[in-house]
Amino acid sequence: MAVRWKNATRWRSNSVKMAAPLATCTKEEQRSVSRFLRSEGVKSIEIHGRIETQYGDACLSLQQVYEWSRKFLNGVGSVTDSPRPGQAHRVVTPEAIAAVEAIVKENRRVTVHEIAAHLDMSHEHHIVHDVLQFHKVSAIRVPPQLSAELKNELLITARNI
Question: DSSP of 77-120, one letter per residue?
């Protein structure tokens, strides 16, 4: 039985060290191991020691092991993080992209706020700039790649201004 000292806390490890430590792992995998060991009655400090032995620097912190052990004791069965409040996820559908593109191509001087009011959506800015990659040039939204004909029209318009 190995005895180690960590942060002035003593824990004992009955585990057998693997031939090669696990270099890649997810938090969920480690939480699953923690859940399994906790169900066997292993204390949190020992769970952390065993996880640290196998996963090295990529292991959960001692505080996280304590928190998840408490959750498992309180009946939480999932090892994934629960959703947190904050910015809503963007759901960009092909239909929304096509609708925004149609509005911009119909009227190149349309504003992002007008698109939002017309389509009743809040992520039109993301679609216009990031998905369609339309950017303002002389107060007109243009696609990133212009045909030769459109380039000539733009040059003529710019010279006339």
Answer: ---SPPP-SSSPPP---HHHHHHHHHHHHH-TT--HHHHHHHHT
Query: Residue 114, CB half-sphere, CA atoms under 13 Å: how many?
Result: 8
The burial of 143, by beta-carbon neighbours within 10 Å (0-12 exposed, 13-18 middle, 19 or more buried), is given as: middle
In this predicted model, what pLDDT tens digit does every residue of 29-68 receive, in sequence order? Answer: 888 888 999 889 999 999 999 888 888 888 889 999 999 8
Cβ–Cβ under 8 Å, residues 128 and 141 = yes
Gap between the Cα atoms of 67 and 84, Å rounded: 17
- Whether 62 contacts 48, CB under 8 Å: yes
Spatial contact of 115 and 124, defined as CB atoms under 8 Å apart: yes
